[in-house]
Amino acid sequence: MSKIQEELENTLKLLKIEWKEELEQYRAKTLGASITDKIKDGICWYPVQITKTRVGMGERLIIHLEKSPSTQSHSFQSGKSVALFSNASEGKQLRAGAVINSVKKNTMVLTLTGREWPDWLHDGKLGLDLQFDEASYKEMQWAMESVIKAHEGRLGQLKEILLGAVPAAISEDTKAIDVQPTLNESQEAAVALVAQAQDIAVIHGPPGTGKTTTLVEAIQHTCKRTHQVLVCAPSNAAVDLLVEKLASSGLNALRLGHPARVDDQILELTLDARISRHSSFKDLKRLRRSVDEFRKQGRKFKRNFGAAERAQRKELLAEATHAKEAAQQLEEYIIYDIFQQTQVIATTLVGAAHSSIKGMSFPVVFIDEAAQGLEPATWIPILKSHKVVMAGDHCQLPPTIKSYEAARAGLSETLFEKVIKRNPKNSQMLSLQYRMPQLIMEFPANRFYKGQLKASPSALLHQLQPEEPVMEYIDTAGSGFSEHLEKDSLSKLNTEEAKLCLKILSNLIDRLGLDQVKEQGYSIGIISPYKAQVRKINELIDEEEEFKSLRSLEDQTTIGSIDGFQGQERDIVVLSLVRSNETGEIGFLGDYRRMNVALTRAKRKLIVVGDSATLSTDTFYQEFLDFVTDKGLYKSVYEFMDF
Ligand SMILES: Nc1ncnc2c1ncn2[C@@H]1O[C@H](COP(=O)(O)OP(=O)(O)OP(=O)(O)O)[C@@H](O)[C@H]1O
């Protein structure tokens, strides 16, 4: 067996270990567990009441739910798969699949996976279970098996090239390319590389250097020459960001994926929305209504059936089937028509296995944030493509891997890293960043990029107001604040620190003036490495009177984990580090790439809040504390202790 085949077989083996680990963790929580156990584990809500049902975009069925208030934490998050169940039928549970749109402390909005309301929806007591997402693993396994099996054809060639056994080809044609005049020299060189590369091109570089911006330019350029391209990223948030930029650059983009997982601003570009805007949609609706009508009529005749009624019923149900087939055909035509008009099909890596693009192939696939994609997931869109373009930064967050064994044995190395190492000539580095002023950039630039990262003149001027410092570190040491473990999720939170962060942010908003912040449209990010802290911050903003001004900025504010912020930027960022304990334990803050992402999201103001007594046990954080002290960015919590 060749080295490459061995390597791929090994990756498949590691994927199976990871799959087993995640399944075992899920089973440990669910198998044989009573509803009470599951509620305690934070993976079940029961009972829940329906507060509203409605039909959303694309005729999706949407349910608003509420449970009685409790302090019980849970693992429900937007985008996750759940099952709604009822205890109405004795012994057997009635279940319907759904995806979470949004979740607050005691309320949730869901989109049902099916197209029909379950007939038990208003019977018995309802509950909600978190589901294990096995479909993604199946797709990744299938992709790995396809790559292993491919010895000929384009996939057979691509695997040899991407994994470094065969050199990648670059065209000699160095015709000047027509790009936006705003691109810098290395960004322009990256677009040229994408045009010339026959097999693979990689754009890499530190945060804010315009990898996504350059990728969008390269996509535009490619779309002038080809009918359609595939564009992917590992996370829904990263796909949404790309789609937004592609659509505003004038490209006809289609966002594939479940609408509940898509940002509200992008909903208009989903297949559901595009179908509902199609000129034949009215006919489709009419046909679907007639299916329902025939069925309803057919089911009316239940008792005292004579031969004539039986025949009539048969006829009505046959009509229903007929209308259903016609509706399906029309829907297929509408989808075909939409795809014909689409220049860019955008989806997550795993979403590239979506049935609506089954059997399609693309001249080029563009993968953004490729350094965050698990290798088996990254192969999924490559199976459909002739040429591969990746953008990313391997000093930012890697993919999340649950099995320590699989990560250590090599699953943590991404295809992006392998490609850069093995095809150095086919990559273009960007090193001029446009996001952060010097002070925000300096520490990550020195610590992660050997000082090679430079700030563009425009970024140097980024600030909120001349007298407002662009960066501050607020030390909570000595305050008595301390972290807690959220028992059910095993995530950490630090309530006092969460309040302090919001207080500091409210003060900043007061200084700038609420109206001014709204008028300027400053975007705000409140970030923490821990999901439990993110939940706590959300809860405080929703409930506490003193954070009223922050509530009124809801549309401009994003609260999330560091992992969810990769690829994004905000004018103002508050980072809550949470860890505060006697033993100096810093847990997964020890993955410094996570801090690299967190420290490089802010454009005009970065406020970091943490406990130096705990953090300084680690040399990386000690260096960071030395940096903020040297630069005069250090403040103690005592300056804010009046609250
Ligand atoms: N040539 C340019 N001129 C002016 N602004 C630019 C240029 N290139 C990128 N930018 C701006 O810099 C910011 C960062 O760009 P972008 O998000 O593309 O960077 P990135 O490298 O993908 O960042 P990250 O590593 O965080 O994902 C954006 O606000 C973008 O508009």
Keywords:
single chain, 643 residues, alpha/beta, seven-stranded parallel beta sheet, 23 helices, globular, binds adenosine-5'-triphosphate, hydrolase activity, nucleotide-binding, ATP binding
Structure explained in plain terms:
With 643 residues, the chain is an alpha/beta fold. It has 23 helices and 23 strands. Strands 9-10-8-11-12-7-13 form a seven-stranded parallel β-sheet, with helices on both faces. The protein starts with a helix and ends in a 7-residue tail after the last strand. Adenosine-5'-triphosphate binds at residues 182-184, 187, 207-213, 393, 434-435, 567, 569. Residues 182-184, 187, 207-213, 393, 434-435, 567, 569 line the site of adenosine-5'-triphosphate (ATP).
Q: How many beta-strand segments?
A: 23
Helical content (DSSP H or I, runs of 4+): 40-55%
Ranges where pLDDT stays below 50 over 5 or more residues in a row are: none
| Widest sheet: strand ordering | 9-10-8-11-12-7-13
How big a fraction of the residues is strand?
A: 15-25%
- The Cα radius of gyration reads 27 Å
Determine the N-to-C terminus distance: 67 Å
Major sheet summary line: 7 strands, parallel
Shape, per Cα inertia axes: globular
Chemical compounds bound to the protein: adenosine-5'-triphosphate
Oligomer: single chain
Count of separate DSSP helical elements: 23
EC number: 3.6.4.12
Enzyme class: hydrolase
Main location: cytoplasm
Keywords: ATP-binding, Coiled coil, Cytoplasm, Helicase, Hydrolase, Nucleotide-binding
